[in-house]
Amino acid sequence: MMGLLWVEDEQHILELDEVKEHWQVDTALACDIAIAKVKENKYELIIVDLILPITMGERRHLKFEVHPANEYEEKYGGLWLIRYIREELHVQTPIIVLTIVVGKDREPVERVLNGKITEYLSKYDIMPEDLCNRIGEILAK
Fold first, then answer.
1. Which of 31, 32, 68, 123 has its CA 20 to 30 A from that of 88?
2. What is the DSSP letter of 47?
């Protein structure tokens, strides 16, 4: 079984049994938790929501040496996380963005993500079995 990291702050989305049946899934509810896990583990694929807190709860006081670079990273913690993974940790693991950021907000976000992600999927449009198929296709490459 291959290991995935799924960074999502909505707990019910992380309960997708279809994904857990095929892959070992590690989860993170905030960006700081994800960073710690990426530093400790080698994942085959990372799934990231864009609307994420940088830190949660009592850890909100934590400071990072890399701050949001633009208004989109300020608004969407997942953008900051992806940049951190790529530019600070130099991890080239495939990344799927699975988010509700669509429509007029998607184009500027995709410009920021240019070249940093493997796939951009809408939570509105994807069924669990389709997500599993897409993960399998990416890992098969």
1. 123
2. E
Instruction: Tell me the per-residue pLDDT of 24-76, one tens digit each, with 9 for 90 and over.
Output: 999 999 998 999 999 999 999 999 999 888 776 555 555 555 566 666 666 78
Strands 119-122 and 95-99: parallel
The encoded tokens of residue 101 equal 């950021």
Please tell me the distance from the alpha carbon of residue 100 to that of residue 78, in angstroms, as a whole number. 12
HEC-encoded secondary structure of the chain: CCEEEEECCCHHHHHCHHHHHHCEEEEECCHHHHHHHHHHCCCCEEEECCCCCCCCHHHHHCCCCCCCCCHHHHHCHHHHHHHHHHHHCCCCCCEEEEECCCHHHHHHHHHHHCCCCCEEEECCCCCHHHHHHHHHHHHHC
63's tokens: 């400071």
Q: What sign results for the dihedral spanned by CA atoms 39, 40, 42, 43?
A: negative
Q: Which amino acid is at 97?
A: V
3-140 fold: Rossmann fold (3.40.50)
